[in-house]
Amino acid sequence: MSHITLNTSKLLHNYNYLNQLFDKNGIKWAVVTKLLCGNEKFLQCLLDMSDKDVCDSRLTNLRHIKELSPKTQTMYIKPPVKRLARSIVKYADVSFNTELDTIKALSDEACRQNKVHKIVIMVEMGELREGIMVNDLSSFYGEVVQLSNIEIVGIGTNLNCLNGILPDEKKLAKLKRFKEIIEESYHSTIPFLSAGSSVTIPLIFENKVPEGINHFRIGETLFFGTDVYNDSIIKEMYQDVFKLTAEIIEIVEKPMVPEGDAGTNLTGETPSYDEKDKGKTSVRAIVDVGVWILIRNI
């Protein structure tokens, strides 16, 4: 049967490497756990080695985290919907927001649950994913800051997730200035400028992260040791924290190019092939992985 193993010592090495990097640069960071799919053994392994906030895009995963470690601060990084306000306030200490009506619903629910719900206001910086437009940021902040049981703990942005727009020093400096304008206008202090993800890490090596960008959300680089910006690896980190083991069902030498008229496959794509490969063969294997896999921890 197929299974995934997690090498805990290699994960700890990657964690310590990032922790030292961020500490050296005065940056707080949170661990993004969505790729663990809420698996309790893997989550417990991570929680045992980390005292960081935990980010996830699924409320069921955040529920598991709260059950395993009630004191861990959880962050819901998927843009919230109003109908889930009750569960968001219950399982997420922090959520990332762009819609006033949704924040009002979170405010109402936080009052009912007698909690203070923290939010990060996400700003559009060219990626065209979630984020309010820059021209609306000041007035948006002014309305949110008046809501009961809501605490604004950060200004953030999301890059390289939808359209692949890369972070750069200019974009980060602009976001820093937007935060400063808000603080000056409202005589307030916003603790975090959450503008970093795995793709932003290489900018640290080049001293291109402006001072004041003080919060990163890291998943891929922690678990895979990748340099997402340059589509390569960080040599000081492990890339084999996870290992997939599966049985080969069939392994046969077959033509490299299929024969016949091609329609769409089960994912809705029509594969293309290089004409130079006609007449050539390769060894092809069918592996018993499927949709569901058994997850094991070592």
Please render the helix and strand layout as text.
Layout: E1 3-6, H1 8-24, E2 28-32, H2 40-49, E3 54-56, H3 59-68, E4 74-76, H4 85-91, E5 94-97, H5 100-112, E6 117-122, H6 137-144, E7 150-156, H7 169-186, E8 192-197, H8 201-205, E9 215-218, H9 220-224, E10 226-227, E11 232-233, E12 242-245, E13 248-255, E14 281-287, E15 294-295
Parallel strand pairs: 1-15, 2-3, 2-9, 3-4, 4-5, 5-6, 6-7, 7-8, 8-9
Antiparallel strand pairs: 1-12, 10-11, 13-14
Helix pairs in contact: 4-5, 6-7
Give helix % range.
25-40%
How many DSSP-defined strands? 15
* Secondary-structure content class: alpha/beta
| SSE topology string | EHEHEHEHEHEHEHEHEHEEEEEE
CATH homologous superfamily, by name?
Alanine racemase
Report the biggest beta sheet as strand number plus sense, adding barrel if it closes: 8 strands, parallel, barrel
**Number of helices, where a helix is a run of at least 4 consecutive DSSP H or I residues:** 9
Measured distance between first and last alpha carbons: 16 Å
- Measured by DSSP, the beta-strand proportion falls in 15-25%
Mean pLDDT: 94
Using only CA atoms, what is the Rg? 22 Å
The low-confidence parts are 291-298
What would your notes on this structure say?
The structure is a single chain. With about 300 residues, the protein is of the alpha/beta class. The protein has a single domain (about 5-240), classed as TIM Barrel, CATH 3.20.20.10. About 30% of the residues lie in helices and about 20% in strands. The chain has 9 helices and 15 strands. It has helices at about 10-25, 40-50, 60-70, 85-90, 100-110, 135-145, 170-185, 200-205, 220-225, and strands at about 5, 30, 55, 75, 95, 115-120, 150-155, 190-195, 215-220, 225, 230-235, 240-245, 250-255, 280-285, 295. The chain has an 8-stranded parallel barrel with strand order 2-3-4-5-6-7-8-9, surrounded by 5 helices. Strands 12-1-15 form a 3-stranded mixed beta sheet, with no helix packed on it. Strands 10-11 form a two-stranded antiparallel ribbon. Strand 3, helix 3 (about 60-70) and strand 4 form a beta-alpha-beta unit. Helix 6 packs across helix 7 (about 170-185). The longest helix has 18 residues, at about 170-185.
